[in-house]
From TrEMBL, chain A:
Similarity field: Belongs to the ABC transporter superfamily.
Name of the protein described by the UniProt record: ABC transporter ATP-binding protein
GO molecular function, one term: ATP hydrolysis activity
PANTHER family, alphabetized: ABC TRANSPORTER RELATED, ABC TRANSPORTER, ATP-BINDING PROTEIN
Residues in ABC transporter domain copies: 4-228
Gene3D superfamilies to which the protein is assigned, alphabetical: P-loop containing nucleotide triphosphate hydrolases
UniProtKB/TrEMBL annotation, chain B:
Protein name: ABC transporter permease
Coiled-coil residue spans: none
Transmembrane helix found in the keyword field: yes
Cellular-component GO terms for this entry: plasma membrane
Provenance organism: Streptomyces echinoruber
Keywords: Membrane, Transmembrane, Transmembrane helix
Residues annotated as signal peptide: none
One Gene Ontology term of the molecular function aspect: ABC-type transporter activity
One Pfam match: ABC2_membrane_2
Superkingdom of this protein's organism: Bacteria
Protein backbone atom coordinates (compact mmCIF):
# COMPACT_ATOMS: atom_id res chain seq x y z
CA UNK A 1 0.00 0.00 0.00
CA UNK A 2 1.58 3.25 -1.11
CA UNK A 3 0.55 6.87 -0.92
CA UNK A 4 1.89 9.50 -3.26
CA UNK A 5 1.83 12.99 -1.79
CA UNK A 6 2.06 16.10 -3.94
CA UNK A 7 2.54 19.06 -1.64
CA UNK A 8 2.18 22.62 -2.96
CA UNK A 9 3.94 21.74 -6.18
CA UNK A 10 4.52 24.32 -8.88
CA UNK A 11 6.58 24.04 -12.02
CA UNK A 12 7.39 26.77 -14.46
CA UNK A 13 9.37 26.79 -17.69
CA UNK A 14 10.78 30.29 -18.15
CA UNK A 15 7.78 32.58 -17.87
CA UNK A 16 5.22 29.86 -18.45
CA UNK A 17 3.60 28.30 -15.41
CA UNK A 18 2.80 24.69 -16.30
CA UNK A 19 1.69 23.51 -12.85
CA UNK A 20 0.44 25.99 -10.28
CA UNK A 21 0.47 25.18 -6.56
CA UNK A 22 -1.05 21.70 -6.76
CA UNK A 23 -1.63 19.67 -3.61
CA UNK A 24 -3.09 16.18 -3.81
CA UNK A 25 -2.77 12.77 -2.22
CA UNK A 26 -3.04 9.64 -4.33
CA UNK A 27 -3.85 6.51 -2.36
CA UNK A 28 -4.45 2.83 -3.23
CA UNK A 29 -6.96 2.10 -5.98
CA UNK A 30 -7.34 3.63 -9.42
CA UNK A 31 -7.19 7.41 -9.71
CA UNK A 32 -7.82 9.28 -12.95
CA UNK A 33 -5.94 12.50 -13.67
CA UNK A 34 -8.29 14.36 -15.95
CA UNK A 35 -7.72 17.56 -17.85
CA UNK A 36 -7.76 19.03 -21.34
CA UNK A 37 -4.64 18.86 -23.52
CA UNK A 38 -1.99 21.29 -22.33
CA UNK A 39 -3.39 21.42 -18.79
CA UNK A 40 -0.11 20.28 -17.25
CA UNK A 41 -0.96 16.59 -16.77
CA UNK A 42 2.29 15.34 -18.30
CA UNK A 43 4.34 17.87 -16.34
CA UNK A 44 2.63 16.68 -13.17
CA UNK A 45 3.16 13.00 -13.99
CA UNK A 46 6.81 13.67 -14.85
CA UNK A 47 7.25 15.23 -11.42
CA UNK A 48 5.46 12.28 -9.76
CA UNK A 49 7.79 9.94 -11.65
CA UNK A 50 10.95 11.79 -10.59
CA UNK A 51 11.84 12.90 -14.11
CA UNK A 52 11.34 16.58 -13.45
CA UNK A 53 12.16 18.69 -10.40
CA UNK A 54 9.31 20.79 -9.00
CA UNK A 55 10.17 24.52 -9.06
CA UNK A 56 8.65 24.67 -5.58
CA UNK A 57 6.97 22.08 -3.36
CA UNK A 58 7.68 18.38 -2.88
CA UNK A 59 6.58 15.03 -4.25
CA UNK A 60 7.00 12.09 -1.87
CA UNK A 61 6.08 8.41 -1.94
CA UNK A 62 5.39 7.14 1.58
CA UNK A 63 7.57 9.95 2.90
CA UNK A 64 10.49 9.35 0.52
CA UNK A 65 11.33 12.06 -2.04
CA UNK A 66 11.04 10.88 -5.66
CA UNK A 67 13.37 13.47 -7.24
CA UNK A 68 17.01 12.37 -7.48
CA UNK A 69 16.28 9.17 -5.62
CA UNK A 70 16.75 6.21 -7.95
CA UNK A 71 16.03 3.68 -5.19
CA UNK A 72 12.39 4.86 -5.23
CA UNK A 73 11.95 3.03 -8.56
CA UNK A 74 11.86 -0.27 -6.65
CA UNK A 75 8.31 0.79 -5.81
CA UNK A 76 7.25 2.70 -8.94
CA UNK A 77 6.26 1.37 -12.35
CA UNK A 78 6.04 3.89 -15.18
CA UNK A 79 4.25 3.70 -18.52
CA UNK A 80 5.41 6.77 -20.47
CA UNK A 81 3.36 8.40 -23.19
CA UNK A 82 6.18 8.48 -25.70
CA UNK A 83 6.45 5.65 -28.18
CA UNK A 84 10.20 5.12 -28.36
CA UNK A 85 11.30 1.90 -26.66
CA UNK A 86 14.38 0.14 -28.11
CA UNK A 87 12.55 -0.96 -31.25
CA UNK A 88 15.42 -3.20 -32.31
CA UNK A 89 14.70 -5.63 -29.44
CA UNK A 90 11.98 -8.26 -29.35
CA UNK A 91 9.22 -7.84 -26.78
CA UNK A 92 10.76 -10.57 -24.65
CA UNK A 93 14.26 -9.04 -24.80
CA UNK A 94 12.85 -5.64 -23.87
CA UNK A 95 10.93 -6.87 -20.84
CA UNK A 96 13.87 -9.05 -19.79
CA UNK A 97 16.21 -6.04 -19.96
CA UNK A 98 13.78 -4.12 -17.75
CA UNK A 99 13.68 -7.03 -15.30
CA UNK A 100 17.47 -7.26 -15.20
CA UNK A 101 17.77 -3.55 -14.47
CA UNK A 102 15.66 -4.29 -11.38
CA UNK A 103 17.97 -7.15 -10.47
CA UNK A 104 15.36 -9.72 -11.55
CA UNK A 105 15.50 -12.46 -14.11
CA UNK A 106 13.69 -14.24 -16.92
CA UNK A 107 11.00 -15.58 -14.60
CA UNK A 108 9.79 -12.10 -13.64
CA UNK A 109 9.88 -11.01 -17.28
CA UNK A 110 7.83 -14.01 -18.36
CA UNK A 111 5.25 -13.41 -15.65
CA UNK A 112 4.86 -9.77 -16.70
CA UNK A 113 4.44 -10.76 -20.35
CA UNK A 114 1.78 -13.25 -19.32
CA UNK A 115 -0.05 -10.60 -17.29
CA UNK A 116 -0.46 -8.41 -20.38
CA UNK A 117 -1.14 -11.43 -22.65
CA UNK A 118 1.75 -10.69 -24.97
CA UNK A 119 3.45 -14.08 -24.92
CA UNK A 120 2.16 -14.87 -28.40
CA UNK A 121 4.18 -12.00 -29.94
CA UNK A 122 7.10 -11.89 -27.51
CA UNK A 123 9.66 -13.03 -30.07
CA UNK A 124 8.77 -10.41 -32.66
CA UNK A 125 10.74 -7.18 -32.95
CA UNK A 126 9.04 -4.24 -31.20
CA UNK A 127 9.35 -2.27 -34.45
CA UNK A 128 6.69 -4.59 -35.92
CA UNK A 129 4.21 -4.04 -33.07
CA UNK A 130 0.93 -2.16 -33.31
CA UNK A 131 0.27 0.73 -30.96
CA UNK A 132 -1.79 -1.46 -28.65
CA UNK A 133 0.90 -4.14 -28.52
CA UNK A 134 3.54 -1.54 -27.71
CA UNK A 135 1.35 -0.23 -24.93
CA UNK A 136 1.03 -3.71 -23.46
CA UNK A 137 4.75 -4.38 -23.61
CA UNK A 138 5.38 -1.01 -21.95
CA UNK A 139 2.90 -2.12 -19.32
CA UNK A 140 4.78 -5.41 -18.84
CA UNK A 141 8.04 -3.51 -18.40
CA UNK A 142 6.38 -1.37 -15.72
CA UNK A 143 4.93 -4.39 -13.88
CA UNK A 144 8.00 -6.59 -13.96
CA UNK A 145 9.09 -5.72 -10.40
CA UNK A 146 5.59 -5.81 -8.91
CA UNK A 147 5.47 -2.10 -8.01
CA UNK A 148 3.10 -0.64 -5.45
CA UNK A 149 2.64 2.57 -7.48
CA UNK A 150 1.84 2.56 -11.18
CA UNK A 151 1.94 5.80 -13.19
CA UNK A 152 0.50 5.86 -16.72
CA UNK A 153 0.57 8.89 -19.03
CA UNK A 154 -2.34 8.84 -21.51
CA UNK A 155 -2.30 5.03 -21.70
CA UNK A 156 -5.36 4.74 -23.93
CA UNK A 157 -4.17 7.07 -26.68
CA UNK A 158 -4.42 5.39 -30.05
CA UNK A 159 -5.83 2.12 -28.72
CA UNK A 160 -8.77 0.44 -30.35
CA UNK A 161 -11.87 -0.27 -28.22
CA UNK A 162 -10.97 -3.89 -27.53
CA UNK A 163 -7.41 -3.05 -26.43
CA UNK A 164 -8.85 -0.25 -24.32
CA UNK A 165 -11.19 -2.67 -22.54
CA UNK A 166 -8.35 -5.13 -21.90
CA UNK A 167 -6.12 -2.44 -20.42
CA UNK A 168 -8.98 -1.10 -18.31
CA UNK A 169 -9.62 -4.59 -16.92
CA UNK A 170 -5.95 -4.94 -16.11
CA UNK A 171 -5.75 -1.57 -14.36
CA UNK A 172 -8.94 -2.27 -12.44
CA UNK A 173 -7.40 -5.55 -11.26
CA UNK A 174 -4.22 -3.72 -10.20
CA UNK A 175 -6.32 -1.26 -8.21
CA UNK A 176 -8.34 -4.05 -6.57
CA UNK A 177 -5.09 -5.72 -5.52
CA UNK A 178 -4.32 -2.64 -3.42
CA UNK A 179 -1.86 -0.95 -5.75
CA UNK A 180 -1.89 2.79 -6.22
CA UNK A 181 -2.67 3.34 -9.89
CA UNK A 182 -2.73 6.79 -11.45
CA UNK A 183 -3.44 7.40 -15.12
CA UNK A 184 -3.92 10.60 -17.06
CA UNK A 185 -6.48 11.24 -19.76
CA UNK A 186 -8.24 14.10 -21.48
CA UNK A 187 -11.30 11.98 -22.19
CA UNK A 188 -14.01 12.08 -19.55
CA UNK A 189 -15.62 8.78 -20.54
CA UNK A 190 -12.32 6.90 -20.17
CA UNK A 191 -11.81 8.23 -16.69
CA UNK A 192 -15.41 7.60 -15.74
CA UNK A 193 -15.28 3.96 -16.80
CA UNK A 194 -12.17 3.18 -14.83
CA UNK A 195 -11.58 5.47 -11.88
CA UNK A 196 -13.68 5.88 -8.81
CA UNK A 197 -11.57 8.78 -7.71
CA UNK A 198 -10.57 11.57 -10.06
CA UNK A 199 -8.35 14.61 -9.92
CA UNK A 200 -9.10 17.37 -12.41
CA UNK A 201 -6.37 19.71 -13.62
CA UNK A 202 -7.14 22.74 -15.76
CA UNK A 203 -4.57 25.30 -16.92
CA UNK A 204 -2.02 24.03 -14.41
CA UNK A 205 -4.38 24.33 -11.47
CA UNK A 206 -6.01 21.63 -9.40
CA UNK A 207 -9.66 22.21 -10.29
CA UNK A 208 -11.50 19.38 -8.57
CA UNK A 209 -10.87 16.25 -6.58
CA UNK A 210 -13.02 13.41 -5.41
CA UNK A 211 -15.63 10.89 -6.42
CA UNK A 212 -16.27 10.87 -10.16
CA UNK A 213 -20.08 10.82 -9.75
CA UNK A 214 -19.99 14.07 -7.82
CA UNK A 215 -17.77 15.71 -10.39
CA UNK A 216 -19.77 14.27 -13.23
CA UNK A 217 -22.91 15.82 -11.72
CA UNK A 218 -21.15 19.16 -11.44
CA UNK A 219 -20.31 18.84 -15.09
CA UNK A 220 -23.79 17.88 -16.28
CA UNK A 221 -25.64 20.26 -13.98
CA UNK A 222 -23.95 23.34 -15.36
CA UNK A 223 -26.06 25.62 -17.63
CA UNK A 224 -26.14 24.12 -21.11
CA UNK A 225 -26.47 26.15 -24.27
CA UNK A 226 -28.22 24.86 -27.36
CA UNK A 227 -28.70 26.10 -30.87
CA UNK A 228 -32.14 25.05 -32.11
CA UNK A 229 -33.77 25.47 -35.50
CA UNK A 230 -37.41 24.51 -36.00
CA UNK A 231 -40.41 24.99 -38.28
CA UNK A 232 -41.72 27.73 -35.91
CA UNK A 233 -38.99 29.24 -33.72
CA UNK A 234 -41.19 31.82 -31.97
CA UNK A 235 -43.91 29.38 -30.94
CA UNK A 236 -41.26 26.97 -29.66
CA UNK A 237 -39.56 29.74 -27.70
CA UNK A 238 -42.84 30.78 -26.07
CA UNK A 239 -43.61 27.19 -25.06
CA UNK A 240 -40.14 26.49 -23.67
CA UNK A 241 -39.71 29.64 -21.61
CA UNK A 242 -42.82 28.71 -19.61
CA UNK A 243 -40.85 25.82 -18.07
CA UNK A 244 -38.36 26.48 -15.23
CA UNK A 245 -35.71 24.25 -16.86
CA UNK A 246 -35.12 27.02 -19.39
CA UNK A 247 -33.53 30.21 -18.13
CA UNK A 248 -33.14 32.21 -21.31
CA UNK A 249 -33.92 32.21 -25.02
CA UNK A 250 -32.55 34.49 -27.66
CA UNK A 251 -33.81 34.71 -31.23
CA UNK A 252 -30.76 34.87 -33.44
CA UNK A 253 -32.02 36.39 -36.67
CA UNK A 254 -28.75 36.17 -38.51
CA UNK A 255 -28.50 32.44 -37.85
CA UNK A 256 -32.23 31.93 -38.20
CA UNK A 257 -32.15 29.96 -34.96
CA UNK A 258 -32.88 30.01 -31.23
CA UNK A 259 -30.13 30.18 -28.64
CA UNK A 260 -31.45 28.47 -25.54
CA UNK A 261 -29.87 28.33 -22.10
CA UNK A 262 -31.04 25.38 -20.02
CA UNK A 263 -30.36 25.19 -16.28
CA UNK A 264 -31.74 21.71 -15.66
CA UNK A 265 -30.03 19.45 -18.17
CA UNK A 266 -32.06 16.29 -17.54
CA UNK A 267 -35.41 17.98 -17.53
CA UNK A 268 -34.71 20.12 -20.60
CA UNK A 269 -33.64 17.17 -22.74
CA UNK A 270 -37.02 15.46 -22.20
CA UNK A 271 -38.98 18.73 -22.36
CA UNK A 272 -37.79 19.88 -25.77
CA UNK A 273 -39.07 16.97 -27.92
CA UNK A 274 -42.33 16.78 -25.96
CA UNK A 275 -43.09 20.50 -26.37
CA UNK A 276 -42.28 20.31 -30.08
CA UNK A 277 -44.59 17.35 -30.58
CA UNK A 278 -47.44 18.88 -28.55
CA UNK A 279 -47.30 22.09 -30.60
CA UNK A 280 -46.83 20.37 -33.94
CA UNK A 281 -43.42 21.99 -34.43
CA UNK A 282 -40.70 20.18 -36.38
CA UNK A 283 -37.20 20.32 -34.90
CA UNK A 284 -34.62 20.86 -37.64
CA UNK A 285 -31.43 21.37 -35.64
CA UNK A 286 -30.60 20.72 -32.00
CA UNK A 287 -26.94 21.19 -31.26
CA UNK A 288 -25.15 21.84 -28.01
CA UNK A 289 -23.02 24.95 -28.51
CA UNK A 290 -20.61 24.62 -25.59
CA UNK A 291 -19.91 20.92 -25.26
CA UNK A 292 -16.18 21.24 -25.79
CA UNK A 293 -14.18 19.75 -22.97
CA UNK A 294 -12.50 23.10 -22.39
CA UNK A 295 -15.83 24.78 -21.62
CA UNK A 296 -16.81 21.92 -19.32
CA UNK A 297 -13.54 22.30 -17.47
CA UNK A 298 -13.67 26.05 -17.27
CA UNK A 299 -17.12 25.75 -15.71
CA UNK A 300 -15.66 23.35 -13.15
CA UNK A 301 -12.92 25.81 -12.27
CA UNK A 302 -15.45 28.57 -11.73
CA UNK A 303 -17.70 26.32 -9.61
CA UNK B 1 29.95 0.44 -11.46
CA UNK B 2 29.26 -1.61 -14.60
CA UNK B 3 25.85 -2.89 -15.60
CA UNK B 4 25.82 -5.70 -18.19
CA UNK B 5 22.23 -4.97 -19.24
CA UNK B 6 22.97 -1.30 -19.94
CA UNK B 7 26.06 -2.42 -21.85
CA UNK B 8 24.06 -4.89 -23.96
CA UNK B 9 21.44 -2.30 -24.85
CA UNK B 10 24.14 0.22 -25.76
CA UNK B 11 26.09 -2.23 -27.94
CA UNK B 12 22.98 -3.24 -29.83
CA UNK B 13 21.90 0.37 -30.36
CA UNK B 14 25.38 1.32 -31.57
CA UNK B 15 26.06 -1.61 -33.84
CA UNK B 16 22.58 -2.43 -35.03
CA UNK B 17 21.58 0.57 -37.08
CA UNK B 18 22.95 2.81 -39.81
CA UNK B 19 25.59 3.85 -37.32
CA UNK B 20 27.38 0.55 -37.92
CA UNK B 21 27.70 1.43 -41.61
CA UNK B 22 29.43 4.73 -40.83
CA UNK B 23 31.62 2.98 -38.27
CA UNK B 24 32.63 0.44 -40.90
CA UNK B 25 32.99 2.78 -43.88
CA UNK B 26 35.71 5.04 -42.47
CA UNK B 27 38.16 2.25 -41.56
CA UNK B 28 37.53 0.65 -44.94
CA UNK B 29 38.38 3.93 -46.66
CA UNK B 30 41.62 4.22 -44.65
CA UNK B 31 42.66 0.72 -45.64
CA UNK B 32 41.91 1.35 -49.32
CA UNK B 33 43.89 4.61 -49.33
CA UNK B 34 46.80 2.91 -47.53
CA UNK B 35 46.79 0.16 -50.12
CA UNK B 36 46.80 2.72 -52.94
CA UNK B 37 49.64 4.73 -51.38
CA UNK B 38 51.73 1.62 -50.81
CA UNK B 39 51.16 0.48 -54.39
CA UNK B 40 51.97 3.87 -55.89
CA UNK B 41 54.91 5.03 -53.73
CA UNK B 42 56.22 1.87 -52.11
CA UNK B 43 57.06 1.47 -48.40
CA UNK B 44 58.31 4.71 -46.83
CA UNK B 45 58.40 5.52 -43.11
CA UNK B 46 57.80 9.26 -43.59
CA UNK B 47 54.84 8.71 -45.93
CA UNK B 48 53.38 6.10 -43.58
CA UNK B 49 53.62 8.52 -40.68
CA UNK B 50 51.98 11.31 -42.72
CA UNK B 51 49.07 9.13 -43.84
CA UNK B 52 48.44 7.72 -40.36
CA UNK B 53 48.86 11.16 -38.76
CA UNK B 54 46.44 13.02 -41.01
CA UNK B 55 43.96 10.38 -42.11
CA UNK B 56 43.87 7.98 -39.16
CA UNK B 57 44.61 10.02 -36.05
CA UNK B 58 43.44 13.50 -37.10
CA UNK B 59 40.34 12.47 -39.03
CA UNK B 60 39.14 8.90 -38.58
CA UNK B 61 39.67 8.48 -34.83
CA UNK B 62 37.75 11.64 -33.81
CA UNK B 63 34.96 10.87 -36.27
CA UNK B 64 34.57 7.34 -34.95
CA UNK B 65 34.72 8.85 -31.45
CA UNK B 66 31.86 11.23 -32.32
CA UNK B 67 29.69 8.47 -33.74
CA UNK B 68 30.33 6.02 -30.87
CA UNK B 69 30.46 8.56 -28.02
CA UNK B 70 27.35 10.56 -28.86
CA UNK B 71 25.58 7.48 -30.22
CA UNK B 72 25.99 5.63 -26.92
CA UNK B 73 23.45 7.91 -25.24
CA UNK B 74 22.27 10.77 -27.48
CA UNK B 75 19.57 8.94 -29.50
CA UNK B 76 18.09 7.44 -26.31
CA UNK B 77 17.75 10.88 -24.75
CA UNK B 78 16.41 12.32 -28.01
CA UNK B 79 13.64 9.78 -28.51
CA UNK B 80 12.91 9.41 -24.80
CA UNK B 81 13.65 5.70 -24.50
CA UNK B 82 16.27 6.53 -21.85
CA UNK B 83 13.26 6.66 -19.51
CA UNK B 84 13.45 2.86 -19.28
CA UNK B 85 16.98 3.16 -17.86
CA UNK B 86 16.20 6.10 -15.61
CA UNK B 87 13.11 4.51 -14.05
CA UNK B 88 15.27 1.80 -12.50
CA UNK B 89 17.16 1.58 -9.21
CA UNK B 90 20.47 1.84 -11.07
CA UNK B 91 22.91 4.57 -10.07
CA UNK B 92 23.26 7.24 -12.76
CA UNK B 93 27.09 7.21 -12.68
CA UNK B 94 26.89 3.44 -13.29
CA UNK B 95 24.83 4.05 -16.42
CA UNK B 96 27.34 6.65 -17.68
CA UNK B 97 30.40 4.57 -16.82
CA UNK B 98 28.95 1.51 -18.55
CA UNK B 99 28.11 3.51 -21.64
CA UNK B 100 31.61 5.02 -21.57
CA UNK B 101 33.21 1.58 -21.49
CA UNK B 102 31.09 0.49 -24.47
CA UNK B 103 31.86 3.70 -26.38
CA UNK B 104 35.60 3.29 -25.68
CA UNK B 105 35.56 -0.33 -26.79
CA UNK B 106 33.69 0.46 -30.00
CA UNK B 107 35.94 3.43 -30.79
CA UNK B 108 39.05 1.33 -30.18
CA UNK B 109 37.86 -1.55 -32.35
CA UNK B 110 36.83 0.68 -35.23
CA UNK B 111 39.79 3.08 -35.04
CA UNK B 112 42.84 1.44 -33.47
CA UNK B 113 42.52 -1.90 -35.27
CA UNK B 114 42.26 -0.32 -38.74
CA UNK B 115 45.10 2.06 -37.84
CA UNK B 116 47.35 -0.89 -37.07
CA UNK B 117 46.32 -2.68 -40.28
CA UNK B 118 46.86 0.49 -42.33
CA UNK B 119 50.28 0.94 -40.78
CA UNK B 120 51.23 -2.64 -41.62
CA UNK B 121 50.04 -2.14 -45.18
CA UNK B 122 51.93 1.16 -45.55
CA UNK B 123 55.39 0.14 -44.33
CA UNK B 124 55.11 -3.05 -42.32
CA UNK B 125 55.56 -1.20 -39.00
CA UNK B 126 58.94 0.24 -40.08
CA UNK B 127 60.27 2.69 -37.47
CA UNK B 128 57.51 1.48 -35.10
CA UNK B 129 55.14 3.85 -36.95
CA UNK B 130 52.17 1.46 -37.07
CA UNK B 131 52.39 0.52 -33.39
CA UNK B 132 52.97 4.13 -32.30
CA UNK B 133 49.86 5.40 -34.09
CA UNK B 134 47.85 2.42 -32.87
CA UNK B 135 48.76 3.29 -29.29
CA UNK B 136 47.84 6.91 -30.03
CA UNK B 137 44.48 5.78 -31.42
CA UNK B 138 43.84 3.65 -28.32
CA UNK B 139 44.65 6.54 -25.99
CA UNK B 140 42.64 9.03 -28.04
CA UNK B 141 39.67 6.62 -28.12
CA UNK B 142 39.33 6.88 -24.35
CA UNK B 143 39.35 10.68 -24.24
CA UNK B 144 37.16 11.14 -27.33
CA UNK B 145 34.59 8.63 -26.07
CA UNK B 146 34.38 10.45 -22.71
CA UNK B 147 34.12 13.93 -24.23
CA UNK B 148 31.54 12.97 -26.85
CA UNK B 149 29.52 10.92 -24.38
CA UNK B 150 29.25 14.05 -22.23
CA UNK B 151 28.26 16.03 -25.32
CA UNK B 152 25.57 13.45 -26.11
CA UNK B 153 24.25 13.79 -22.57
CA UNK B 154 24.03 17.57 -22.49
CA UNK B 155 23.09 18.53 -26.04
CA UNK B 156 20.53 17.51 -28.61
CA UNK B 157 22.95 18.65 -31.30
CA UNK B 158 25.83 16.56 -30.01
CA UNK B 159 26.79 15.17 -33.41
CA UNK B 160 27.08 18.65 -34.93
CA UNK B 161 29.15 19.97 -32.03
CA UNK B 162 31.22 16.80 -32.13
CA UNK B 163 31.95 17.21 -35.82
CA UNK B 164 32.82 20.87 -35.35
CA UNK B 165 35.28 19.94 -32.58
CA UNK B 166 36.76 17.02 -34.50
CA UNK B 167 37.11 18.73 -37.86
CA UNK B 168 37.37 22.44 -37.15
CA UNK B 169 39.19 22.53 -33.82
CA UNK B 170 41.39 19.46 -34.06
CA UNK B 171 42.18 19.55 -37.76
CA UNK B 172 41.89 23.15 -38.96
CA UNK B 173 42.24 25.45 -35.97
CA UNK B 174 44.98 23.33 -34.48
CA UNK B 175 47.10 23.66 -37.61
CA UNK B 176 46.67 27.45 -37.72
CA UNK B 177 46.86 28.52 -34.08
CA UNK B 178 49.73 26.94 -32.15
CA UNK B 179 48.11 27.47 -28.74
CA UNK B 180 45.07 25.46 -29.74
CA UNK B 181 47.25 22.40 -30.15
CA UNK B 182 47.91 22.20 -26.43
CA UNK B 183 44.18 21.66 -25.94
CA UNK B 184 43.84 18.86 -28.45
CA UNK B 185 43.23 15.19 -27.78
CA UNK B 186 45.12 14.46 -30.97
CA UNK B 187 48.29 16.18 -29.72
CA UNK B 188 48.05 14.47 -26.33
CA UNK B 189 47.82 11.08 -27.98
CA UNK B 190 50.69 12.01 -30.32
CA UNK B 191 52.83 12.70 -27.24
CA UNK B 192 52.23 9.10 -26.18
CA UNK B 193 52.95 7.87 -29.73
CA UNK B 194 56.19 9.86 -29.81
CA UNK B 195 57.35 7.99 -26.72
CA UNK B 196 56.56 4.64 -28.38
CA UNK B 197 58.19 5.37 -31.74
CA UNK B 198 61.13 7.43 -30.51
CA UNK B 199 63.04 9.49 -33.11
CA UNK B 200 61.29 12.24 -35.02
CA UNK B 201 58.88 10.29 -37.23
CA UNK B 202 56.05 10.97 -34.78
CA UNK B 203 56.08 14.33 -33.00
CA UNK B 204 53.77 16.26 -30.71
CA UNK B 205 53.51 19.88 -29.60
CA UNK B 206 52.82 18.73 -26.06
CA UNK B 207 55.17 17.04 -23.61
CA UNK B 208 54.27 13.58 -22.30
CA UNK B 209 53.68 14.62 -18.65
CA UNK B 210 51.34 17.45 -19.66
CA UNK B 211 49.58 15.21 -22.16
CA UNK B 212 49.05 12.44 -19.61
CA UNK B 213 47.65 14.80 -16.99
CA UNK B 214 45.31 16.43 -19.50
CA UNK B 215 44.12 13.11 -20.93
CA UNK B 216 43.28 11.74 -17.49
CA UNK B 217 41.74 15.01 -16.31
CA UNK B 218 39.51 15.44 -19.36
CA UNK B 219 38.34 11.82 -19.27
CA UNK B 220 37.57 11.84 -15.55
CA UNK B 221 35.92 15.26 -15.52
CA UNK B 222 33.79 14.60 -18.59
CA UNK B 223 32.59 11.28 -17.17
CA UNK B 224 31.86 12.72 -13.73
CA UNK B 225 29.95 15.65 -15.20
CA UNK B 226 27.94 13.41 -17.54
CA UNK B 227 26.89 11.36 -14.50
CA UNK B 228 25.78 14.53 -12.71
CA UNK B 229 23.83 15.72 -15.75
CA UNK B 230 22.07 12.38 -16.03
CA UNK B 231 21.04 12.55 -12.36
CA UNK B 232 19.05 15.67 -13.05
CA UNK B 233 18.11 14.97 -16.65
CA UNK B 234 14.72 16.45 -17.34
CA UNK B 235 12.46 14.52 -19.64
CA UNK B 236 10.18 17.01 -21.26
CA UNK B 237 6.68 15.79 -21.92
CA UNK B 238 5.05 16.10 -25.32
CA UNK B 239 2.70 18.84 -24.18
Amino acid sequence: MSTLTIDHVSRWFGNVVAVNDVTMTIGPGVTGLLGPNGAGKSTLINMMAGFLAPSTGTVTLDGQPVWRNEQIYRHIGIVPEREAMYDFLTGREFVLANAELHGLGAKAAQRALATVEMEYAQDRKISTYSKGMRQRVKMASALVHDPSLLLLDEPFNGMDPRQRMQLMDLLRRMGDEGRTVLFSSHILEEVEQLARHIEVVVAGRHAASGDFRKIRRLMTDRPHRYLVRSSDDRALAAALIADPSTSGIEVDRAEGALRIQAVDFGRFTTLLPRVARDHGIRLLTVSPSDESLESVFSYLVAA
Amino acid sequence: MYDPTVARLTYRALLGRRRALILGALPLLLLLISLAVRTLTGADDRTASDVLGTLALATMVPLIGVVAGTGAIGPEIDDGSVVYLLSKPVRRPTIILTKLIVAIAVTMVFSAVPTLLAGLILNGNGGQVAVAYTVAALVASIAYAAVFLLLGTVSRHAVVFGLVYALVWEALFGSLVPGARTLSVQQWSLAVAHRVAGGDLVTSDVGLPTATVLLVAVTVLATWYAGQKLRSLTLAGEE
